[in-house]
Amino acid sequence: MSLDSTKQQLFQQTEQQLRAQGFAVERQDQTRPWGGFFVIDEGQAQQFADTYFDGLSVDELRISGKLSPKILIVAPGQRLSWQYHHRRAEIWRVVQGPVGVVTSDTDAEGELKTYQVGEQITLRQGERHRLVGLDGWGILAEIWQHTDAAQPSDEDDIVRVQDDFGR
After folding, report:
1. DSSP state of 153
2. SS3 state of residue 19
3. In this structure, what CATH number is given to the domain that contains residue 143?
4. Can you give the pTM of this predicted structure?
5. Residue 25 falls within a domain, yes or no?
6. pLDDT profile of the chain (167 residues), mean per 10
């Protein structure tokens, strides 16, 4: 099976699972060169936390504003950009894996660490990070912790230090 048909099938399965769990998918993006993502309705942030983050209280997670629950899908052997954010911290939980994650407090990449299904990764505001697909497809649940109530983070709040795709 080709990578594209596997990707399409994985997206269909993931969407079906999310809907079966009662989640409203606000949008999805299968066009990313590294894979793609699903954005879940903000009003379901606590249900999302209950399902994917062992019931973490969204009130305790909420630094300011919303949590922007998402599911990330990363293709085998692909890397998201080496990046950081000015207006958010992030919490990831591995749903399907293993996956690789690189972090650092500087622009120099740290060592690639492997995370298994169920493990959680906490990324601080400004911490450099990169998600890496290993031998198989990886799936992560993600919650953003917006750190600026007046200007919540969005997809434009990405500072790319290095990017395999020239973005």
Report:
1. -
2. helix
3. 2.60.120.10
4. 0.91
5. yes
6. 84 97 96 95 90 79 73 97 94 97 96 97 96 97 85 87 93
Whose tokens are 């409203």? That residue is 24
Q: Tell me how far apart the alpha carbons of residues 11 and 75 are, in angstroms, rounded to a whole number.
A: 11
Is beta strand 82-84 parallel, antiparallel or unpaired with respect to 70-74?
A: unpaired
Edge to edge, the sheet with strand 128-133 lists 113-115, 99-104, 128-133, 82-84, 159-162
**Residue 67: per-residue pLDDT:** 81
Q: How many domains does the chain have?
A: 1
SS3 content of the chain, % helix, strand, coil (to 5): 20, 40, 40
Instruction: Output the DSSP codes for 34-97.
Output: TEEEEEE-GGGHHHHHHHHSTT--HHHH-SSS----EEEEE-TT-B--EEE-SSEEEEEEEEES
Beta-sheet pairing, 35-40 with 70-74: antiparallel
